[in-house]
Amino acid sequence: MKVSEDFLWGGDISAAQIEGGWNEGGKSPVEADFMLGSDKDHLHQGWYQKEDGTYGKTSWLMNDLPQGAHYVIREGEYYPNHTASDFYHRYREDIELLAEMGFKALNLTISWARIFPYGVKNGANRGGVEYYRNVLTKCRKYGITPIVTLFKYDMPVYLVEEMGRMVQSGNDR
Predict the structure, then answer these.
(1) pLDDT tens across 109-127, in order?
(2) At what angle do helices 126-141 and 87-100 cross, to 10 degrees?
């Protein structure tokens, strides 16, 4: 059986799962940036701090954040998303390797937290726009068709906290 010449052999990556560079280039944090390394007893949890200064852990879905609490990074904890596969710094060589393997397509996501770190009203982050422009240009240079997904597991914390405040105050329109 022969694969058609127009078959798009490729792969799929998510910004939240591969990029790293979690606080570089003007990017704001996403929920996944607060997820701890997991073990058999504590799968995908993150820390939050309550208004009274005490701490709690939240689940992977991050939908159990108490009113008035905010996400925190704690010293000594392992946050795998902070470095991930370090695509943010290594995309050039990673894309070259994909081309060596014969990839013709790459489904990738654009992190809104890298493009609009504090929402649309605060403007675009030029560093984030330039980063993705470079990634897409590198893909095209090697004949890899980028297939862009605009959201995949990377909800900006700014929006979560802002929308949470709006919903809590009754301004959810």
Answers:
(1) 999 999 999 988 889 999 9
(2) 10
SS3 66: coil
Residue with tokens 């393997």: 101
How buried is 61 (Cβ within 10 angstroms: 0-12 exposed, 13-18 middle, 19+ buried)? exposed
For the entire predicted model, the pTM comes to: 0.83
Q: Which H or E run contains 58?
A: strand 55-58
Amino acid at 67: Q
Supply the DSSP string of 103-128, one letter for each residue: --EEEEE--HHHHSTT-GGG---HHH
CA-nearest of 173, 8, 13 to 90 is 13
Phi, then psi, of 49 in degrees rounded to 5 = -120, 130
Which residues are registered as beta bridge partners of 58? 46
